Amino acid sequence: MSMRNKKGFLLLLVALVLFPFTGMGTRTDNPTDKQVGKLVLEAAKAFSLRHSKDFISICEFERFVKSGGKYSQAFLSYGLFGSLDFKQDKITNLFNDPSIGCYRVLGSFNSLFIEPSGQEYIGPTYKTIHLYDESRLFSETFDQYPLIPPVARMRAMEVYGPLNPKKAGCYNYTLIKGSVQGYCEIAFETAKGAFPSSTLLNGRGIIFINKGVIMGFRLENVEERFSFFLHSDNLSPRTSVTDYDYEVRYTSVGGVIFPETIKQNVRWKTAGIRSLNHLFYAEVNPCLEPFKKNVSTYMKLSFRDHKFLDKQLKQKYSRYFTPSGATWRVTLADPTIDHIIQGMMNRDKLWRDVKIDLTVGGRSLEDQNALQTRLYLTSAASGGAATPSQSEIDRVFEVCSSRDRKSREIFTSLY
Known about the structure:
Blueprint: H1 3-18, H2 33-50, E1 55-67, E2 70-83, E3 102-110, E4 113-114, E5 120-121, H3 152-160, E6 171-178, E7 183-190, E8 201-210, E9 213-224, E10 239-240, E11 242-253, E12 256-268, E13 279-280, E14 296-308, H4 311-317, H5 335-346, H6 350-358, H7 365-382, H8 390-414
Parallel strand pairs: 10-13
Antiparallel strand pairs: 1-2, 1-14, 2-3, 4-5, 6-7, 7-8, 8-9, 9-11, 11-12, 12-14
C-alpha cells in the first residue's frame, strides 16, 4: 500500500471512530439529565392516555410473614380485582381515590401466626390499628390482613410520582441502563423542596421504559403520604423503621395498559432509632414486637385475563367494585374455588418450607384456616365487644355467604 493510500486509510479510521454512522436522528447513548426528564414526561403522557379507564381482572394475592428466619404466617387469596374511572389528578389520599380498586375474594387461605418455637398465636383476626400513635405501635397493634390495600402504593406513584405528567417535574432523573431509544432504566429522586408541598412521595426509585412506554417501576424506602400518615399534621420527613422495596410491572393488551404484578418486601429494623416519635413504616406490623422477632414480609399480586369494561358492562358491575366493597380478608370455604387455592400452594416450591414451619406445633394448615375463619366470624359479629350470641354469628355468616355468592356470580358471568 502506498503512503498516500495509507494516509487515506488512517483518515478513514479516524473519521469512523470520531463520527460513527448512526443512521437518521441524534445519538442518545449519553443523554443529558434534562433530555432524560423529557423522555419521562412524554412517557407519562402516553401512560395517562393508554391506561385502562375501567377494567376487571383475575387477581391472585399471596403474603408471607417470617420471624426468626422461619415462616410464621401465610395468606393466599384468589379473586376479582376491578378498577373504575382511572384518573391521576385532584386526589389527596387513598380514601378519596375512585381508582384505588376493589378486590372481591373468591377463595382464601389464612394460617395462624406461629412462633418459631411452635407456639400458636390465637386471637382476634383483626384489631383496631393505631396508625398514628407510635407509642403503641410495637406493643399492642398488629395486622394479620392487609389493612391498607396493596395497590395503594402503586396509586401513590400514579398520582404523585413520575407516572403522572403533572408531577413529573417534581423529580430529578438519570439514565442508568440502556438507551432512551429502546429499553432503559431511569433513576429518579424527589427534587429538593418538592416534598411535601408538591408531591407526597419522598425518596428514590427506578422507572422501566421500553420505546417510550412505561413498563413498570421500583421504589426503595420511599416515604409516601398517600396511604400512610396522610392525616398527620407534621408532614416533615419521618425516620423509617422498615427497609422495603416495592415493584410494579405493567402489561399492554391491545395497546391498553394494565397492571400485571405488584411485589413488596419489608424488613423491620432498629438501627438508628432513638425514640418512637415521628416514625415511618411501610406497613402495619404483622405481629407484636416486630423488632424483637426480626420480622420480614413478602407480598405479591398477580393480575391476568383483563376485561375492559365498556359502557354497558361498567353500568352492570360498577356498584360491585367500589372501594368500600373490597373483601381483602377471609372468605368462606367453597369447593369450586378451594382447588385453585390448593393449586397456588402446589406450584410454588417455597410452600414446602412454609408447610414445615407452620405445622411445627402439630396443627395442620387446613385446621388453621378453618379456625381463622371461625375467629373472623366471631370477631366481626362481636365488633370487639363481648362474646357474640350464636344468632349474631349466624347473621354475619349469612352476610358473608351472600357477599361471596355475588362475587362468584360475577366471576361466572365474566369468565
